[in-house]
Amino acid sequence: MKRIQPVILLLAAMTLFLFYRQSHRQSFTEGITRAQTARMLAWTVCDMNKDRAKSVEPLIDVDSTLWYADEITTVLAEGIMKKDGDLFHPIDYLTWEEASNIADFFDISLSIPVFQKRKPMPLEKWLQFFDRLLAEQDIDIKLIKKEQKILAVPSASDTLDRWQVKTDSGIYSCEGLALEKYLDQTVTAYIYQDQLLMAVPADHQQAEIITASTSVDTDNTKAAEAPSESFSQNDPLPAASAPDIRVCIMNDDFSSEAHKNLRMTSDAAWQLTFHNKVIQYPADEVVELNADDFSEDGETAEAVPENHHCMTILSINRSCGNPSYSGRLQIMRSKDALFLINILPTETYLKGVVPSEMPASYHLEALKAQAVCARSYALSAVKNPKYDFADLNDSTSCQVYMNQGTDTQTDLAVDATACEVLSSRQKIVTAKYFSSSCGSLSSSDDIWGYPDTASLDTHMTERLETEPPGIPALSSEEAFRNFIFQPAENTYLESSDPWFRWQTELSMAHIRSNIAESFAKRMSADPKRFTVLSSDGTIDPDDISQIKIVKRAESGVLQKIKLTGRNQELTVSGEYNIRCLLVPSSDTAVILQDKSTRNGMSLLPSGYFFLEEINDGEQITGYKIYGGGFGHGAGLSQNGADTLAEKGYDYREILTYFFEGINIENVNTLE
């Protein structure tokens, strides 16, 4: 690892990490930290006097002098709570998933709300679960839960020690609780022997939870930039954050998740947790990592900037330049490569998706519709992750993220639709979208279904993109050809868009080259959609002499083609596979209806096209391709959404135009 001037000792770095400050009182609906959870469990269901003597592996973020150190050691020794490698994350809020793990340890059922597993568990829900946990234990737990009046606190009394509180029934230890603001007020207290474990005021405001200060030798930390405000022993812990999503960041050309090396920096001071150390770097310091810097497969490092700034990856180039990522970055070694995962709140993630998927210049209502679709897609991915280590990636195979920088208009669209998703029967609908329509929309089955599978998403249906939507009948070659060549004037929403109609051509030599390069690769990725009939079961691209259309959906999208030769017959199904095999060469232009051209495409623009032979005598030398639209053609057309917004549709009306039988609801109200 190449690095410049690691200048902060471990203890100082831990203190800087905790400097973030919360200026408002936490509500009863907010969470309980992992440290406070450990304290409540350690003093009730564990034997603190016995278990605190047990040893566990040292934790980077738990200093032995802090008030919660013994409690964390106790719950780890018992196996009630788990650590994350060499970290415990004591100041993070307990999530629903972590609470469920605790419930499993005690063989108690705990229902987790859908899509809430990585959200903080509200304190109110934790206390309800904690009450049930204690009630169901066989051991005699003498926990008292009763109302107490706070009579004295250390800051207002010379007789109390640092972590003591006086109530109308005695003096108790209250490590980790700042109760000054409740002086002379009545609280509901959880008391075990001489320990006051939690206090919930009558107005349902949570007692502030704090961490002890750690002294730092300033002579050893002069090279570090001091934070704008330090974290003191009476500061509350950071507020609960939004649910996180894990985004795998692809390489430069989006061809792979693997990176040879990663170079990173930040415009603010930042820290890298790596090799059991927390290393603090000043702003603009550049660090480079490669696989050789890691000891073994699966080892990770984590980069976090101060004060909600971003980390910039200098080894990646996007349309916006070197991308900058909010949240934190996890770097993981796998074999000889590195994988980069951006972990951040979902709503923040969406602010990097919407401008990368839809031009920020589009009408606000169209951007709102895009935000709802992107949120629906993202939360569906959280429920069904693409990888073990990440929910989705940042490419067109999922949702493009941070290819363009954030924008105030798209930020507004995300904020205005916060938490809203497409739903049906109390479940999130996976909202698909694409760039531009040819005037006909496909069903989910048309694009992604297999002949032997049940219907997929019934909310994306075949329809003509008209007002109101019509029913397409474009499965015959004649009907589709007429639709492409002679669309009814001023009938279709996007008839003025350049991509509404396009054309290109392919030589047979280039088609054979595509088959040689891509057929086996695509067949390996999607074997159900390919067949090979030849004498020896092999593929001979040079033998292919003709393309035949086998099947077209009523929406007009091409679903199956046959590639034939003297000695073989290859079939290809699925619009994506067909577009891969019939992509023009890099020097062959796709000509749009406004006569502009595009070169170097990685796919044919869409699956809505027909073929016209180019002949030299009786020999087919190539094909002219006439088509329309850009993208797969199912779900929301982004350009169509902007057209509807221009006509005065609001985002809800836009969404119900493209998706049948859906609701637009707050995700927190769903099952």
Automatic annotation (TrEMBL):
Lineage: superkingdom: Bacteria
Domain called Sporulation stage II protein D amidase enhancer LytB N-terminal: residue spans: 337-422
Region listing for Disordered, in residue ranges: 218-237
Database matches in Pfam families: SpoIID
Annotated InterPro entries: Bact_Sporulation_Assoc (IPR051922), SpoIID/LytB (IPR013486), SpoIID/LytB_N (IPR013693)
Protein name, UniProt field: SpoIID/LytB domain-containing protein
Source organism (scientific name): Coprococcus intestinihominis
